Amino acid sequence: MKWEGRAGSTNIEDRRGMGGRGLAVGGGIGGLVLVLLMSALTGRNPAEFITTSSPEDTGVRSVPEDDPQSQFVSVVLKDTEDVWGQLFAKRNQTYEPPALVLFDGATESACGLGQSAMGPFYCPADRKVYLDLSFFRELDERFGAPGDFARAYVVAHEIGHHIQTVTGLSARLQSAREQAGRRGASALSVRQELQADCYAGVFGYHEARRGFLDAGDAEEGLTAAAAIGDDRLQQQSQGRVVPESFTHGSSAQRVAWLRRGLESGRVEACNTFEDSSR
Hints:
- The structure is a single chain.
- By secondary structure, the chain is α/β, with parallel strands linked by helices.
- It has 2 domains: 12-18 and 53-270; 19-52, no CATH class.
- The chain is built from 8 helices and 8 strands; from the N terminus they run E-E-H-E-H-E-E-E-E-E-H-H-H-H-H-H.
- It has a 4-stranded mixed sheet, covered by helices on one side. Strands 2-3 form a two-stranded parallel ribbon.
- Strand 2, helix 1 (28-42) and strand 3 form a beta-alpha-beta unit.
- The longest helix has 41 residues, at 169-209.
- The protein starts with 11 loop residues before the first strand and ends in a 14-residue tail after the last helix.
């Protein structure tokens, strides 16, 4: 993927090193009780669990020039802004990009405490993507999915959730989940995740058209999608597959929808809710 030397996004919040591993205590006596309980359980000083970080903290709005991984994320984020800005403009709409928060360990979001163990995530309440760069190392070493576009796919998937939010789909799905029952709600969540995969593919299609992808990049993304399918992750972690508990879709489903986006480049091709054949 051709990213070196290109402009990055200004919508970056670098919170690394801000002490976000603690808890932002602003909840009165309840928050204090939680801190004291954690201190008692671990034997650590209560102050170690407290941080002044909050969802409003912006961190540093640039990334270090000597930090290739954060520079890479900044360029990919800028590319998503350009691609989706153009796609929205074709529909006479204005794209409002999200911020991307870099953190290490843990940080506060409007959706609660975000932790590295959760992996990258998007918070619709504050319209921000949260990413601990250590996930890229996991993607390479644990999941066997190295490569620049594998990492770009991860970012583009989370941006896909932002697209769902700004178009109003996420709010409609939340309402539908509340009425669908447990199994129905799970199925809707999987379809939402698969659509984000397809949107990541749409991004990849336009990146290729702009000349920013190298030969083999698309395969890197597809390998990553296969590596983090629910069935594969469940088999690795518990030795069995439970489709009823899927949250993101099987490896085959994730690959199929990412491929559809990569091959079509069309938002309209990503209606995972009407096409359940994949």
